[in-house]
């Protein structure tokens, strides 16, 4: 084989791997969105940042591997890598990661839930007593203010 064909095969392989990498990074965004619900404007901003970053990565790959020349087989390789990753790996990675992260978060949140449950009654009791005391203070201050106002009017 000639060295040029080997070079073109290397460029194609780099393009396929770049496509797979880009979709793997997007899957991380998808996992984050499933774990933490996002507002639509935030999803749009994340997507915009992702695609601008993807364009920069593609440009860097083209510049490094192919001296900056945009060739059809390179774009096809990127698309083929994305398609392959999406069809074979994406669903497994997203579902598995979301499942594992939710289980980990559940296990980590249990001590906080138990603590909150234990403190619910004492904190609620203290809150009621504090509210009662503040109402009493307010009534007393109103009485004092009324007395001061009446005394000032008599002067």
Distance between the termini: 112 Å
Please outline the major beta sheet: none
Number of helices: 3
Helix content: over 70%
Q: Roughly how many Å is the radius of gyration? A: 32 Å
If you average the pLDDT, what whole number results? Answer: 86
Which structural category fits the helices and strands?
A: mainly alpha
Strand segment count: 0
Elements, N to C (H/E): HHH
Low-pLDDT residue spans: none
- C-alpha geometry: elongated
- How much of the residues is beta strand, in percent? under 5%
SSE topology:
Blueprint (H helix, E strand, L loop, with lengths): L2 H33 L4 H27 L5 H83 L1
Helix pairs in contact: 1-2, 1-3
Short description:
With 155 residues, the protein is mostly helical.
Structure description:
- This protein is mostly helical and 155 residues long.
- It contains three helices and no strands.
- Helix 1 packs antiparallel against helix 2 and helix 1 packs parallel to helix 3.
- The radius of gyration is 32 Å and the shape is elongated.
């Amino acid at each position: 084989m000639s060295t040029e064909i080997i070079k073109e095969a290397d460029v194609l392989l780099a393009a396929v791997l770049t496509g797979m990498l880009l979709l793997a990074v997007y899957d991380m965004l998808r996992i984050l969105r499933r774990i933490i619900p996002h507002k639509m404007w935030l999803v749009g901003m994340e997507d915009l940042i992702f695609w601008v970053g993807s364009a920069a990565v593609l440009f860097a790959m083209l510049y490094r591997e192919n001296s900056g020349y945009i060739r059809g087989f390179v774009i096809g390789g990127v698309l083929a890598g994305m398609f392959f990753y999406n069809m074979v790996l994406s669903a497994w990675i997203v579902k598995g990661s979301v499942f594992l992260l939710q289980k980990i978060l559940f296990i980590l949140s249990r001590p906080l839930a138990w603590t909150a449950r234990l403190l619910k009654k004492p904190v609620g009791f203290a809150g009621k007593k504090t509210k009662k005391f503040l109402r009493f203070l307010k009534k007393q201050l109103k009485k004092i203010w009324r007395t001061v106002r009446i005394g000032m009017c008599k002067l």
